[in-house]
Backbone:
């Protein structure tokens, strides 16, 4: 597994997203647990979840899957609702997440998206649980460039380690200002939904992708993930509910593109030349 610098430490280039995991029957949950464990056994060092995912069901499944694993071998990320973003509610949400995950700390705790709570209060709440040892570091999710700049201007805001946004070949808005700004400020980036949403609302598969995947003898999904990883400087977190799907994702790490192939993709999925509204799934 290729390594990148993420959250100021060595990390696998892909993590494991867990949206909608733990919401099925026992058979489906067992397969999902196998997928999580296969990921950990084969070099994946980041697991991403949230209290929102299945109202805690995803965290509960992850907690079962990581039993017996050395907790220091991987980074565990969870996220809290924006209506839980006050110091008191952050602490309560975190305690509940830790119980479901059966761990005593998180490597990263993220504000899932921005709500009505002033950022100053959220920073204070995160600082308190960090000082108490319940989280190692904290970050945000679904923040646009104006949000990031505002956060960074506040006392303690410069300690934000990561921002997690939608990023795939059809949703490239982060390339215009967010990715350059985060690189300048040494803030890691997590790209979620490299394949678009389940219903394909955020990514239309055009013939160029199908043709290129056929030429490379890979699946379209593998091509999509490899494209997100092409510069080897961000973390992508595709969901893999089955071991077979996970194996395909792991293999995508080794797919490379020629400059002509990247230009061809750019011609059908143009990179932004101006600020666009951040898309959120």
Residues:
């Amino acid at each position: 597994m290729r390594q990148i610098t993420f959250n100021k430490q060595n990390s696998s280039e892909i993590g494991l997203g867990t949206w909608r995991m733990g919401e099925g029957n026992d058979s489906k949950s067992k397969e999902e647990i196998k997928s999580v464990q296969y990921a950990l056994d084969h070099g994946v060092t980041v697991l991403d979840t949230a209290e929102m995912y299945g109202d805690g069901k995803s965290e509960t499944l992850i907690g079962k899957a990581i039993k017996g694993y050395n907790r220091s071998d991987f980074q565990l990320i969870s996220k809290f609702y924006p209506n839980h973003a006050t110091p008191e509610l952050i602490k309560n949400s975190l305690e509940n997440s830790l119980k479901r995950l059966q761990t005593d700390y998180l490597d990263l705790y993220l504000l899932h998206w921005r709500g009505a709570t002033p950022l100053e209060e959220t920073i204070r709440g995160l600082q308190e649980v960090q000082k108490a040892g319940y989280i190692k570091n904290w970050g945000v999710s679904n923040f646009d460039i104006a949000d990031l700049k505002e956060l960074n201007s506040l006392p303690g805001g410069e300690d934000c380690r990561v921002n997690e946004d939608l990023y795939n070949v059809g949703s490239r808005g982060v390339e215009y200002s967010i990715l350059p700004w985060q690189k300048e400020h040494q803030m890691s980036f997590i790209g979620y939904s490299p394949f678009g949403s389940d219903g394909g609302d955020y990514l239309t598969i055009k013939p160029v992708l199908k043709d290129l995947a056929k030429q490379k003898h890979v699946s379209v999904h593998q091509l999509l993930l490899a494209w997100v990883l092409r510069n080897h400087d961000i973390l992508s977190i595709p969901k893999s509910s089955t071991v077979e799907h996970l194996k395909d994702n792991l293999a995508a790490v080794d797919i490379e593109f020629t400059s002509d192939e990247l230009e061809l993709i750019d011609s059908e999925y143009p990179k932004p030349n101006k600020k666009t509204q951040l898309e959120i799934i």
